Amino acid sequence: MGNDTLLQVKDLVVRFRVPGSKYRPTFIRPVNGVTFSMQQGEIVGIVGESGSGKTTLGRTIVRMVSPTSGEIRLRGRDVTRLGRRQLSGYWREVQMMFQDVYASFNPVFTVGQQLRYVVNKHRDQHRQDVDVELDRLLGVTGLTPPDVFRRKLPHELSGGQRQRVALVRALAVMPKLLVADEPVSMLDVSLRADVLNLILNLRDEFGLSYLFITHDLPSARAVCDRILVMYGGRVVEIAFADDLLDQPLHPYTQRLISAADFAEDSGLQTAPPAEDAGQVMAELLESYKGCPFRRKCPLAMDICETVDPAFRAVSPTHSVACHAVDDAVASEARGSLQ
Amino acid sequence: MNGQSVTKERTPGERAAKQRATGVQGIRESAATEPTKTMASADPVLEVDGLSVVYESNGQLANAVNDVSFTVNQGQIVGLVGESGSGKSTLAYAIMRLLPANALVADGSVRIMGEDVYRMSDEQLRSTRWKRFSMVFQSALVALNPVLTIEWQFMEMFRIHRPDMSRAEARRHIVGLMELVRIHPDRLKTYPHELSGGMRQRIIIAMAIALDPDLVIMDEPTTALDSVVQRDILLEIRRIQQSRKFSVLFISHDLRLVQFLCHEIGVMYAGRMVESGPTSAIKAAGLHHPYTEGLIAATPTLAKRDRALLQGIGGQPPDLTRLPGGCAFHPRCPIARPVCKSTAPGRVTVGELNMLCHRTGFDE
Prior knowledge:
heterodimer, A: alpha/beta, 12 helices, B: 8-stranded mixed beta sheet, 31% helix, globular
């Protein structure tokens, strides 16, 4: 990893008190010891099911949530403990696209007003220059003619258009990193491909880096260079997208892949029994011991009950946290990757 | 091409005014007469014939469903795919006779087990609905009453539809249903918010099949769920369907799911069924409606590793109050010709597929 390292996250932990546990506090760790780094211009996917902590990780990286411990570095600068005033500078470089795009707009202001507000907040620029710039961004994202879209209110836009305006709003600040939380999962399939392609084009045009948070592995494969798989607040596997999908090592990654594989009619196998999960996943509880995936894992062993599997590299670009991936498998994977 | 003919276009206003006075018009699909391999008997459970539904809002009329015909046979799973605004949910509500007050069935008929849903008296409808045909709604959290326990909501259903059943009998029945959808009966005492999204959806499915209906309509039952849970629910639906032998009308915007689960598929666009046929034929390479081809190209799959393979359809879904003339898909269609702008295409049969497109006429 050279000088192009954009973001470094090290041993990041986020701790929340479970609502309603005021007198006997119990805590969960939706982000539990996450370590990874990404390069300038890279698109990294964070994949996992609901409750795996992927959204909390994204929100922590944009510092909407303060980490309990660990470290976040943007281009070498420690941003873990930035204060309010410094944060607005940080947000000039790191922006977020929210999952519920509609809720992230003010319903009574036009698109143009909201976009201009964001730009004025972060940059000192003449009003006319701002408008020219915004028109160009609206054009790039396919919202033409721009002056029509600038006058529209959020409810007058379709889902795909709203998603594009959210992209424009994030881009207007000219960030280096965009954290996109499920940017396409609310969209119809016919519009999804357009937005995914737009994400790729904007990377090429502005050198933008993305953290792409999704539960949909096929969408992640379509845009991501590397994919990070989360389960129970932990990163269980990280690799280049193709390696991860061709050679998934962690049992959970394998399960995610088979869940997304509708091409093969492998569905004749019986479904796993319904789990008795409540609202809070037991795996996230602070008192939880061992591998987070062990209760659903087909390969679970005794050691998985007690010892947290270490995150280790099976190759320079492929790491996994699993006791069942023994050294033989790892070296085989290493051999075939070379 | 045999079976090719041109549907007469009428404005929504005329359609609405004519109501059902003229009876069914337009071209029927051959689905009912097509040989279907997937089931033992070919008894139609649901017959939708030339159905048109019109919405009125702010003085404007929107043709949400336009001359749609199809059949669901005994023990069959039929899928409807289309994007938001294609009329697929409106179609489901029209079949249930649950349309809102500003919507009107302008034309056509819906028959369930041979009985016309729109000719039933209110009393008849009340006793048949849910017993003979039921529905799994899109949002499981909204469909369940948040202040009543799951058991209470089950009991209420039995109290109304099966007054002959004793409480103990109903409870036995409910426990059996919970086991069928693989949720521990202890969960009956909980409230909806205490359950995960997947469990809620299983409960909704259990409620829909509780009275042993002949037909279950499922409107986007897995859309709000993540991909692992989604697959579990689909497998669950298939397993229960095979053991209970009811028919399913499965509605989704995701072609992958529909191809995975259904025996036959209908593709909807702007209120019309633009392509229909058995899943194997829809999946197979060959001549399809350009919209179906667009959907296939736009769907991300794990196999599509080359980024160039993912192509959007482009453009926006049409505004139903101002449908483009001719073929409604022509502004987004990559192979549109002048004729597509001027004339609405007729239904053509290509192999096992049934299409609403001019393209077969292009080559001549």
